[in-house]
Amino acid sequence: MKKFILIAFMACNSLATLAQNHWSEVPYLTQSLSDKAIKEVLVSTEGGSIQVSGVEPSQARIEVYVVPNNNQDLTQEELKQRMEEYYTLRITDNNHELHAKAERKHDNTDWRKSVSIGFKIYVPQMVATNLTTAGGSIHLTNLTGEQNFVTSGGSLHVNQVIGKIKGSTSGGSIHVTNSQQYIELTTSGGSITASNCTGTIKLATSGGSLKLNQLKGDIDASTSGGSVNGDDISGKLLASTSGGSIDLTALACNLEGATSSGSIHVQMREMGKYIKLNTSAGHIDVQLPQQKGLDLNLKGSRVNAAINGSFDGRQEKDRIEGKLNGGGALIEAYASNGSVNVKFD
């Protein structure tokens, strides 16, 4: 085992020539991991960001960044003294595991002398992670494996990751792109953007909007306080919001959509087995491709459907129920206080 207990250690001799520095741009410490064959990364820090990227084994390394809070510009010696007095930094590698932990020595550290300690970690692509930070963002790029990560006050960024991906933030946005297999991401106070992803995808936010683009698989996307916008989605989609509209285009999927206080707009590129839509305080617009057969169940304050073909059922001002052209895929739409409008292209 190779173990380092680092209280204050500068990354390279060239830093000694600098009286002042932007510590967010220059590593406080750099250590090679090229001969370690790291398979698992475990990181914990109280106030900085964490980035893990897959690279060629020869480029594997860990970089530590120390940023004084309150926009202070410290000299090398001042930063060294602050780290020695208030913080402990531990980095160990053993059995192909990398452990990195930054923490305060004392709970009552003067906030005016506090710093943020972040990590940029470059490891082989096949790696698992377990990451925790109390006040920074988390970035994952070009990885394959099981990824678990949590931040209390930053954003999540996932790109080109394959495997089981599970992350959460209490106060930031989420961006996931070019990833696949199993994705579960949640935030209590930010928006979510997901694009070019496949697999089982679960996205949830308590206070932001959802933007979905080029997704394929079993998708569950929900928000308690924002809108849902989607384009080019196939497979199965469950989209719900308690406080916004739903706007979905170029769909080729089974669809369930619900909102408590907004309208729903859906445009299907190809039909799946069913569409189920519900709103309590808005209207519903559905655009469908020409189909040989549909089962229609439409209810609203007013229902408008340009039916073209044989219809067997009930057609009234506020509802249409029956089989179009012998029946087929289910189209179910309920608007408690708005109209339902269906057209065929």
From TrEMBL:
Signal peptide segment: 1-19
Name listed for the protein in its UniProt record: DUF4097 domain-containing protein
Keyword Ligase: no
Location of the DUF4097 domain: 170-342
InterPro entries in the record: Toastrack_DUF4097 (IPR025164)
PANTHER family found in the cross-reference section: PROTEIN FAM185A, PTHR34094
Membrane-spanning intervals of the chain: none
Annotated keywords: Signal
